Amino acid sequence: xxxxxxxxxxxxxxxxxxxxxxxKSDLGCGAGGGENNVDVFxxxxxxxxxNANADDPREKGDEMSPFKHDTPVRICVAxxxxxxxxxxxxxxxxxxxxxxxxxxIELKATIYNYRSSKSRFCLxxxxxxGICLFGAAKTLKDGSQANTCSHLKDIQSSxxxxxxxxxxxxxxxxxxxxxxxHSSLDKDILLKTLRVVKEFSxxxxxxxxxxxxxxxxxxxxxxxxxxxIQAAVKPEALKLLADLPQGSAERELMNIIPVFYxxxxxxxxxxxxxxxxxxxxxxxxxxxxxxxxxxxVSSFQRQDFSYSMWKDGEASTWVTAFxxxxxxxxxxxxxxxxxxxxxxxxxxxxxxxxxxxxFREVSDYKPVALQGxxxxxxxxxxxxxxxxTLIAFSEYKKPCPFQKFADAENRAVGYLLExxxxxxxxxxxxxxxxxxxxxxxxxxxxxxxxxxxxSEAQVKGTPPAYRFWKETPIKFxxxxxxxxxxxxxxxxxxxxxxxxxxxxHDYAKPVMRWLTEEQRFGGGFYSTQDTIIALxxxxxxxILIKRLTLDMNVKASYKFQGDFHxxxxxxxxxxxxxxxxxxxxxxxVCAGSNTGTAAVTLRSVYYVSSISEDTCDxxxxxxxxxxxxxxxxxxxxxxxxxxxAKYKPRRRTGQFSSPHAVMDISLPNGLEANEEDLSLxxxxxxxxxxxxxxxxxxxxxxxxxxxxxxxxxxxxxxxxEIYRVGMxxxxxxxxxxxxxxxxxxxxxxxxxxxxxxxxxxxxxECRCMEAECGHMxxxxxxxxxxxxxxxxxxxxxxAYVYKVVxxxxxxxxxxxxxxxxxxEPYKLELLYQYPLDDLTWIxxxxxxxxACDSCQAFTESLDEFVDDLFLS
Length: 872
Description:
Distance between the termini: 95 Å
CATH superfamily of the domain at 620-757: Alpha-macroglobulin, receptor-binding domain
Low-confidence stretches: 1-11, 62-69, 201-207, 475-484, 756-760
Radius of gyration: 38 Å
Largest sheet: 7 strands, mixed
CATH topology of the domain at 620-757: Immunoglobulin-like
CATH architecture of the domain at 620-757: Sandwich
Structural class: alpha+beta
Strand content: 15-25%
């Protein structure tokens, strides 16, 4: 067509013109070629014969023939045949999930011989740079080490042999270990990966571990619920809100609550557009998460429709009220999921409500706020539980519109109004005030309680920049997490909810400012209950300020180094990307004259070598003994570990036993807990532990309802040595209150009991194994010359040269901290606490009173070195 052939113009041709042109040379296939397929061939001059539509009638006799149903023809596929293929001779080795830097690890390589005759073999091992291999024959240019096959060994037919080799991780990360088995007729190569981790847990600091890095990260959010929204959408982020052990109803509820508050905020403010095209899928996903959480919590429901803290446990007033409150909130968006809620309310009224309108706890489980046996403390506890239950009742006025529920609610309101003036605890006063305000109790005593609560506020700044409440008379250090801080958040949050219900928004601003600054990385706070109430505050306040369109230009600068980072926040871009900050300068943040609210977070994290006992409420001890029993088919050593804890009574507050507690035992590398023992402890009649879990990194985490203050509670189980570890880091035993996890008590223990720590090398063989340690030079070594000392002292990476006298030493975990007095400084830097590593040169300097044959000459050589160092 394009060249104008057959009378068609080279210009643009319409489709109708093209079809008409095609018909001129039609051979029966073009438009109008025939009425049907037969006519197409007829008009083309062809005759097509077929029997496709022919009938072939036949007559059959009267006899009946058997009926047969022919199955359609299919392709037959035989069942897969699983064939196990093994080599005649091969090697395998068990590598642990992770090992700690600085621990000597003895690994066992197993050689298998499936031949009917004996074989000769040699095992060659090579490791990457960063791993020290004991007995390595050579070190390559890339830093890797390997042994050599110097001689062959015999392995009998149809048997196995074990070859051990020792390694010492010197650096952090993933490292390859290559094993090559050379046998008479074959070669087998095995590649394994060794994960090397730091000596201690990654946590908020007090005592930094030597030779580890401090990380500072700056982040900003233009939505008070920004981190919580991210946590609700991303499953892995939800754990940051409450990093607590699994197994309890309360922990399962924590999987629902953040998701609900996010959904509630998005729905009430119509802010689903922040997810863009993912709006529908995100909404469905959040509803699905809440439904899964409801199903999980329902497994804690008993036959009488109450709820227990543990599966198949005893009914609990507090847990039932807690579940009903959460279910009542979620019911706003999922009304068909809670058919038994009103029945559970009936159980609370019939079983738990007293004649005076208060509620009592019917189980042995008691959260932290219910502890105490003193007369005044009993009243405070009863008021707390009644207010906590009344808050749950307020969610069911429409779903359960029965007179019985209204009467029960009125009795509870009457009890609280009668006793609120006698409360001496600010926390109890805060929750009671909120419960009565939510119940719309219009009474002078409530108004007086509200004014009293405001008068007890802690205020910073004039006009107030921060406003918060603490449970008197607890003293607190705002710079470190403590029970005061966890309870302060919960007390402040309950007070803020009352303030918001009364519409006092200006008064609420300094409160919200303090609350947002207490929020931790990931969106959570300190514990479960304070996180729940604080998230409710953030949700309600965020809904109030939604009328402000977010449009902010936020600039972060170093105090001395200048500009650092700029954030442009909008409604669709409400979270700024976290960026790492310099450790050597302060950061200043300022915003232009834009609209919206934003919060800036600077997170600093490093490793700690020991834990302060300033806020420890428990006495701890660990006893480890070797189990002399012989177990069937077991060739590994078995030890009995007993971890014991005792609560330190608080006689001033009437607390003589702890509430819900967690016992966390970390097993050093090479040891494995016997799960049969733990299962027996959890399921026996006396049920010493309520729940347990074994984490991938070797922690045994157990939960108990209470730890007594008059005797030790001891939990014992067996541990099995899977592989040998030399110079093992100590294990840790930690105990803390479930509702206040920051107030943790920790001790170190030797997992091998009375045995001394194993050392897998001796003498000069340890040169590689001790590569990271400082070394003392031989005493009175006259072969060390002035030039040798000077070369060592004047290296660029040597910051200090001085003379000290050691005053004391103290073990801190895997480290020994020396305290010394500086006598004569020769070369100085700014740091005064640092590790003695492989770069450290240490020599003994005899004192003037030391008498020995070569002391004077040796001292003179040191003095000569010092004089030369000053002159140069």
